[in-house]
Amino acid sequence: MVPPVYTRILSVLISFSSLLSSAWATEPNAQPVSFRSDVALIFLENCVACHGPKKAEGGYRIDTFDELLKPGDSGEIPIVTASAASGELMRRINSGDMSERMPADAEALTSAQIDVLKRWLTEGAKFDGEKSNTTLNLVIPPRQFADPPATYPAPTPITALAFSPNGSHLLVGGYHEVTVWNAADGTLTRRIKNIGQRVHAIVFLADQKTIAVGCGEPGRNGEVRLVDFESGQLKGVVGRTSDVVLDIAVRPIPKASSEPATPTGPPVSNEIAIASADGLIRIVNTDSLAETRTIANHADWVTAIAWSDDGTRLVSASRDKSAKVFDANSGELLVSYSGHAAAVRGVAFLPDGKQVFSTGTDKKLHRWEVEAAKKVTEVAVGGEAYKIARGDGFIFVAGADNQLRRIDQSSNKITHTLSGYQDWVLATSYHAGTNRIAGGAMNGEVRLWNATDGTLLRNWIAKP
User: Fold this and answer.
1) Which sequence spans correspond to the domains of the chain?
2) Does domain 161-461 have CATH number 3.40.50.80?
3) Pick from 66, 258, 298, 410: most CB atoms within 10 A?
4) Once rounded to an integer, what is the mean pLDDT over residues 73-83?
5) Alpha carbon of 13 to those of 144, 147, 158, 289, 438: distances in Å?
6) Distance between CA atoms of residues 290 and 286, nearest Å
7) Contacts within 8 Å (CB) and 24+ apart, 371-379
8) Binning pLDDT at 50, 70 and 90, where does residue 138 land?
9) Nearest-angstrom CA–CA distance, 125 and 118
């Protein structure tokens, strides 16, 4: 069952789909047809949903080039290069019988798409990627996204936000973009484009000049885009996956390191942890752009991720009703906490790394020991709770009851309840240098508060 928060986000964003034309549109040209640039996209967008690893209608899969060549249950050869009209695949695509025609229960492929496939077949049905067993979403080159609309017809849900390193600006996830707002007066200063459809995470890397943006389109693709903050230029794409990226965390360097501290916390490394809706955790080196480790231990979406302060451990939250702690170097599972008995949405280590805070759909904040996964205490937070922002001696928890709560780490008491929102609070970010907390809501509203006393500093609707 899809959680209510994602159902609501989908209903709000679906109206945008008709505003943008796909930047993946494939048109016939004089150049040889490329499988990775032209053909793979057609199959990914029209065929994989019914012929992928999770669902293979007729025993036929099309999610990799290798699988594409294998017959399904009928035993008919799917790809024949001697004639563009031959082969079971093209026969089904061109069939006038609706019970046979592919894609089933969907619009037929366009004449332009069919022409691309015919040309690819007559040219020898060649594979021009690196590995033929790679899934189609990873074979396709990183795409250039269409520009977002100049003016939004309605606000988009805020599922990610982050302060700039000096706290002067607030970055907010938009539709195919990150919008940059002046924190002093709430005015829009810049728009960083060429981003995935939905943005669920924004973090600054160790150089304090590059942002990592976790984005994607649910059920279709996900990735982390590394973007130069000042110029908006794309520097790299990592963590590509078949479903949307939901969280990113930058690995800290142990306090014993001689590296200088950053304006917003301890020094950090060139590694990030990526949490995705495909159930995997990926560790990526942002210098080499290589995945150094993949952790496959959750049975459902990984919704949030956090490092311990010394960078030796990772804690993850999942829709599979668990939070898990891993050894950051080996990826070995150290402990699993199932005290929520419900989907877990947010996680954060306490400074000593011996305990964890976690939030979830049970409408509670849990505090538990890492060593034995034993619950220390729980705090009712009024509504489904999302990601956690940690400060010095306190944490902030965003919730579906239109509230943002400040909770003291020593007493486990709610010290301030930040109200005034007209919709669910989905995202939050804390800036230590200016001692401010920001919260973003389903209706597109941003509220900026003094983190100590809960004084509202300003608010605005983050709608270009």
Assistant:
1) 24-139, 161-461
2) no
3) 298
4) 82
5) 20, 16, 11, 30, 22
6) 7
7) 371/335, 372/335, 373/335, 373/336, 373/337, 373/338, 373/339, 375/337, 375/339, 377/412, 378/339, 379/407, 379/412, 379/413, 379/414
8) confident
9) 9
